[in-house]
Write a structure and sequence with these properties.
alpha/beta; Immunoglobulin-like; six-stranded mixed beta sheet; five-stranded mixed beta sheet; 14 helices
């Protein structure tokens, strides 16, 4: 059995938990509940389970979960004046600001109370020409320097956690924060961040200072949002659905289309509704709203919930629009191909994109029991990936190489079978149109649900075989039910 092998180890790691899917006191939920009372048996139960997801309809990304009185940012611009690079946000009200620098890569992080960013992230993040009159502090406005003089390579913003928002500024070189404040004058309220060049030693000292001031301890700078309370264990198989990215980390973006974080969130909810409606599984999501969840926390959520399957949902972009179709990834120590390696490297930078220090991964436990469990987990992951590919192709298009592997951090739970489902590519016009189509979403979510059911049916069949036939036990029997050589199923390397 997979789970008992690391039961003691899991208890010591169960520090996070999923956001539970619950019926909220909304008119929609109430209506469904009344309908459920009028129904009988399975129909009533299914109606209530659907309410768990339908009552959580996502608000527009800019407003989701924000307090009614939250400040609103309506525009942003970069202004270059001499040696000073300014990033300015137009606000509806003054806010408190905390700004600091991080290295690897060089970034400026600006934390503020939860703010509604009522505009899309910029497509071209180059310095804007100066306004006709002075803008903010004396000496800041003036003739814009060439783009190459700007200290800002790009920037992004969004909700970090309930009550908190964040702006992340990617630097072209080491920089010093001159000021990060809100200013009010006749033109209104602005959040301004002024930067000037600095030397490497001074920048390193500023990074060290930011770490030392972190509260309550230096590790807080790495920790991200606080973990959720541990969920109640379930007698049903637990499925964790992980909508990739979120909050300040928008993921892939293409002009005129929703951000990746919003596309995958809607897909995750569609899949969750379907699974909940079946009543066979206990379903949790790593996020139920537009917030950022660090990669390690997503893994802890799965382990704390004693999950039997973890599915991370993504939708990437590629240079050129000639690549399309879904791809299913599993974890491996060596990437199956260059494209899988590129995607893993990109996805593993999610924490950095949200303004956290990633640090080095801690060394994994090296003992026989751990290694056997991890190998079995990876084999189950591989089998589910094959099942998902087989079912998906009956409903929608696949990439020409639909099953790959690489070192994805989010798939590294040693005792939870895990896959990353790339729904398609936003850089493909065909895929982008499908990814935002409700009919396609429901059809493909149904395919994923079907593959999950098939996977657990096969595992149950393998356990039954194992109970009555000694040699064909555990993974051996499971692989045999798929018509695959046991030795091949147990390999955890690339595809």
């Amino acid at each position: 059995m997979l789970k008992p092998q690391l039961a003691a180890s899991r208890e010591s790691h169960a520090t996070g938990s999923p956001a539970r899917l619950s019926v909220r006191a909304l008119p929609l939920a109430a209506g469904v509940a009344l309908y459920a009372l009028a129904c009988s048996g399975a129909m009533a139960a299914q109606a209530v389970r659907h309410a768990q997801f339908d009552s959580q309809k996502a608000a527009p990304a800019a407003q989701q979960g924000a307090p009614a009185n939250a400040p609103v940012a309506s525009a942003a611009r970069i202004i270059q004046s001499g040696d000073v690079t300014r990033l300015s946000f137009t606000l509806s009200a003054s806010v408190s600001v905390r700004a600091f620098v991080l290295a690897s890569p060089a970034r400026v992080i600006v934390d503020l109370p939860e703010t509604v960013f009522a505009f899309d992230p910029p497509e071209a993040q180059k310095p804007a020409p100066p306004p006709a009159r002075r803008h903010g502090r004396k000496g800041v406005a003036g003739k814009a320097a060439p783009s190459s003089a700007s200290l800002i390579a790009s920037y992004r913003f969004g909700r970090l956690a309930p009550g908190k928002s964040r702006v992340v500024i990617d630097l072209t070189q080491a920089a010093r924060i001159v000021q990060a404040v809100t200013e009010t004058d006749a033109d209104g309220v602005r959040l301004v961040v002024d930067l000037v060049r600095t030397d490497a030693a001074s920048f390193a000292a500023a990074v060290a200072s930011a770490r030392s001031l972190a509260s309550p301890a230096p590790e807080a700078a790495k920790a991200g949002p606080a973990p959720h309370p541990a969920p109640a264990r379930s007698a049903k198989p637990v499925i964790i659905i992980d909508p990739g990215h979120g909050g300040v980390d928008a993921g892939a973006q293409v002009a005129g289309k929703p951000a990746e974080k919003d596309i995958v969130f809607e897909f995750a909810r569609a899949l969750g509704r379907r699974l909940e409606g079946e009543g066979r599984f206990a379903v949790h999501m790593t996020r139920n709203e537009d917030v950022f969840v660090p990669l390690a926390e997503r893994v802890r959520i799965a382990r704390a919930a004693d999950a039997q399957l973890f599915i991370s949902i993504h939708a990437d972009t590629l240079n050129g629009g000639n690549v399309s179709g879904a791809t299913v990834y599993t974890v491996s120590d060596r990437a199956s191909d260059a494209e899988a390696a590129r995607l893993a490297e990109k996805e593993n930078l999610s924490d950095s994109a949200a303004g956290f220090e990633t640090g080095e991964e801690s060394a994994e436990v090296s003992d026989i029991l751990f290694d056997l469990t991890r190998r079995e987990t990876r084999a189950y992951s591989h089998v589910f990936a094959r099942t998902l590919v087989s079912v998906w192709k009956q409903a929608a298009g696949l990439n020409k190489n639909p099953q790959r592997s690489a070192g994805f951090k989010v798939l590294k739970a040693p005792d939870v079978p895990s896959v990353l489902l790339e729904l398609g590519y936003l850089s493909s016009q065909k895929d982008a149109a499908l990814l935002t189509a409700p009919e396609w979403r429901e059809k493909t979510a149904a395919a994923v649900a079907k593959s999950i059911n098939a996977f657990f049916d096969m595992r149950a069949g393998a356990r039954g075989t194992a109970a009555g036939a000694g040699p064909e036990s555990g993974l051996e029997g499971f692989a045999a039910t798929l018509g695959k050589a046991p030795g091949e199923a147990a390999r955890s390397g690339g595809n």
